[in-house]
Design a protein that fits this description.
Distance between the termini: 86 Å
Number of helices: 24
GO biological process, one term: lipopolysaccharide biosynthetic process
Order of helices and strands: HHHHHHHHHHHHHHHHHEHHEHHEHEHEEH
Protein name: Dolichyl-phosphate-mannose-protein mannosyltransferase
Low-confidence stretches: 384-388
Radius of gyration: 25 Å
Strand content: 5-15%
Subcellular location: Cell membrane
Strand order of the largest sheet: 3-2-1-4-6-5
InterPro entries: LipidA_mod_glycosyltrf_83 (IPR050297), RgtA/B/C-like (IPR038731)
Largest sheet: 6 strands, mixed
Oligomer: single chain
Number of strands: 6
Mean pLDDT: 85
GO molecular function: pentosyltransferase activity
Length: 512
């Protein structure tokens, strides 16, 4: 096979990977209803205008991200309607952009086969979840991969003006997609510092491109105050341990929370072994490719791959809060490095073709399995199962924000849906759940969602009876504890929306 025909075949494989990835994500998303965080994005991005969107994100955000991602969601829902598909579309496009960029990055380093492997790895891992979730992470991955590709071309190509513009733009937009995108500065700055030391001079056009892109962080400042309110009593603020690092790596490749603690310990051991093997293979490959792979490029990839360690340090000493999804860009460096490490397989044509066939089959199988599991796990919206429920009047109060969003918005019957109301209390949530995340969200939602939202203290001043759905033991629901603390009279009425449907009456003493 000639070099030209091999390149055409490689690009055809890339197109196949993109089609299969999109099909898997769309099928998965079709059967998976919007989750709580996605509803926050949906409520934010479907406001009436861009000016309203800016107002929401500045003063009373419920989705705590900078503006750019929400502008994409607003544009998508304006073009395609206020649907789950439209609000998730930016994430899918960002994920596909990531795959294209990884293909070209790895191809330039180690050839067509490496490009194909780098593009398909994220779709075979748990990272694919973010291609069909209406959160900023799919877009962040796409912009991070574009930044990597732009840097590669910006340091290698003589005609690089367009790539330097792409570098500045992708960096600025990434910083305005998610606050933890600031971690992307580490691999970029490290790579350019290595390059400056090697060259013994500053590449001023590259320096200015990086500086302009970094200055994009200033655009997030007007939105940080509104999001910063949540830091005072945020739900996962606390001591950050080194386990956050292993959790981050495990979360990149599989949903480890579905496994037992013993299985997770085994996974950690396997992860360490795999990391050692990968490091050894990378050292061998990079040593062999020293003349063709710039040291700065190697530094970029390696720092990307160890991003969870820097995420841990940032959380430990600055934010005091982290989620494993915040360091997702590590998959960019890992995908390219893994692809480079296994390129020796390409020397044997049969093994290379067999591996291509296997990973394509895995992609199809994984896509089918994910869609099938999502279909089986769709929540059944169990309605009020008692015979006289339809005759009961008045609002039906839910305190658990997750159930309020996921279930209340999914109820088909408008008569029932209109009765769902949210109850909140910052003092009680802090006292009983040790955070006020849901209460702050409820307060902010009152400014632009149109939902019926009431304070628990106001509800308690009315004797009732009040219809409520409680979710004891959910970890997020403090309502049952508050009712017990207030010595309310609780009459069980049956089951509703996955919780316990009750009638509540407060005593005269509590009403005073």
């Amino acid at each position: 096979m000639t070099a030209a025909s091999e390149s055409r075949f490689s690009r055809t494989l890339l197109i196949v990977v993109l089609i299969l990835t999109a099909a898997s994500a769309l099928a998965w998303g079709h059967y998976r209803p919007l989750d709580q965080d996605e509803w926050f994005v949906f409520q934010t991005d479907t406001v009436s205008s861009i000016s309203k969107l800016v107002e929401v994100q500045r003063h009373y955000p419920i989705s705590l991200d900078p503006l750019f991602y929400h502008l994409l969601g607003h544009a998508s829902t304006s073009l395609f309607g206020a649907t789950a598909f439209a609000i998730r579309l930016p994430s899918l496009l960002g994920f596909l952009l990531m795959q294209v960029c990884l293909y070209f990055v790895a191809k330039r380093i180690a050839g067509n086969f490496a490009g194909f492997i780098a593009a398909i790895i994220p779709a075979l891992t748990a990272t694919l979840f973010y291609a069909q979730q209406a959160r900023p992470y799919g877009v962040l991955l796409g912009l991070g991969a574009l930044l990597l590709l732009a840097y590669q071309h910006g340091t290698r190509d003589p005609q690089r003006t367009g790539w330097l513009i792409a570098l500045a733009a992708s960096l600025a937009l990434a910083l305005n997609t998610h606050y933890f995108a600031i971690l992307l500065l580490l691999p970029l700055y490290t790579a350019e510092l290595v390059r400056i030391v090697q060259r013994r001079r500053i590449d001023w056009p590259m320096f200015f491109a990086i500086a302009i892109g970094s200055a994009g962080a200033l655009l997030t400042l007007p939105f940080q105050k509104g999001a910063g309110e949540f830091r005072k009593h945020y739900y996962n603020v606390g001591k950050i341990g080194l386990h956050a690092v292993t959790q981050s790596y495990r979360a990149l490749f599989l949903n480890y929370t579905q496994y037992s603690l013993r299985a997770q310990h085994i996974l950690i051991v396997l992860l360490v072994v795999a990391a050692l093997v990968l490091v050894g293979a990378i050292l061998v490959r990079f040593r062999a490719n020293d003349p063709t792979v710039p040291l700065a490029e190697k530094a970029f990839l390696l720092v990307l791959a160890i991003l969870p360690f820097f995420g841990f340090l940032l959380a430990r000493f600055v934010t005091h809060s982290i989620e494993v999804r915040y360091i997702l860009p590590a998959i960019l460096g890992l995908s390219v490095l893994i692809a480079i490490a296994i390129t020796p397989i390409e020397r044997n044509a049969f093994r290379a073709r067999a591996l291509v066939g296997i990973v394509l089959l895995l992609l199809v199988g994984a896509g089918f399995s994910r869609a099938a599991n999502a279909r089986l796990q769709r929540p059944s919206l169990q309605m009020l199962t008692i015979a006289h429920a339809a005759a009961l009047s008045g609002p039906i109060y839910i305190q658990n924000m997750g159930h309020f969003d996921e279930l209340g918005n999914a109820i088909a019957d408008p008569a029932v849906r209109s009765r769902i109301a949210l109850v909140y209390s910052a003092p009680l949530e802090i006292a009983l759940a040790h955070h006020d995340t849901q209460s702050l969200t409820a307060e902010h939602m009152q400014h632009f969602t149109g939902y019926r939202i009431e304070q628990y203290e106001d509800l308690r001043s009315q004797p009732g009876p009040h219809l409520m759905i409680v979710y004891p033991g959910s970890g997020w629901d403090w309502l049952d504890s508050a009712l017990e603390q207030d010595h309310a009279t609780i009459t069980p009425l049956g089951l509703a929306l996955g919780g316990e449907f009750v009638s509540v009456a407060f005593s005269a003493k509590e009403n005073r």
